[in-house]
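If your schedule permits, I should be very grateful for your opinion on a structural question. I have a record of one protein: its chain in single-letter code and its fold written as discrete structure tokens. Kindly check, if you would, that the fold set down in the tokens agrees with what the sequence suggests. I remain grateful for any guidance, and I place the record below:

***
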Amino acid sequence: VCSTGLIGVRLPMDRLLPAVRDAATGLSAEGGAAAAEAIRTTDTVRKEVVVDTDAGFVVGGMAKGSAMLAPDMATMLAVLTTDAEATPQQLDDALRAAMPGSFHALSVDGCTSTNDTVLLLASGASGRSAPGPLAEAMAEACASLARQMAGDAEGATKVVEVRVEGAASDEDAARAARAVAESVLCKCSWYGCDPYWGRVVSELGSSGAAFDPDAVAVAYGPVTVCRHGVACPHDAGALATVMAAPHLSVNADLGLGAGSALVLTNDLTHAYVDENMGTS
């Protein structure tokens, strides 16, 4: 049994277990969409993915989650399935390798709950085995589900990719990217389509990552707005178009090394407050 329910409230197992037996009698090959629909809570849409491979097998998946998603999953459920033939170790390796670029890179609001699960089930029905393509398909499927969760985050109007490059290490890059992605000020400015890069630089500098204000650069999409820690000339019309789009890329170069990282997030809106004013 997987759950992201209220913290500290025990599940009514006396009701759940008989229901599982009843539900099992209704299993069908066409039931995937119904299952993805059934696991929604505050999600507004179901989240599904199918990845066909050239190796003769398919990877599919469904997930739920729209808030309290950080770090390393939290408050999300995902079930991946494949008809590939693979050993338990190969499946474990493929799933774990897919996490850093997907669910572990997702932060809706910087808040962590107590419950999360990602499962991978393999039937072997295709009779085809190829660990490399399996890992690639798994990474693609998990990344798609993570992006769908960012896009359906509570109250969100846009998906935001925060990319940090030029850090002293990958760990520093991840630390800096997460600081920007989880900044309330930054998230509010993205909602308002305000390209105030000063908030981004402030979060980078206070993140604990190695930082030189004279080396940093910031761009929204392809439009660079800050070089060497100060404002630089740019196309205001192009920038306004980038900020108004439903997908926004915030790119920072720390100018210190080869470290890089990506964090998926979203903007912060009035609707998020409305959703979380009470117990949920």
In short: The mean pLDDT is 92. The beta strands are 47-52, 58-64, 76-82, 116-122, 159-167, 217-220, 223-227, 230-231, 247-253, 259-266. The longest strand covers residues 159-167. The CA atoms of residues 137 and 218 lie 32 Å apart.
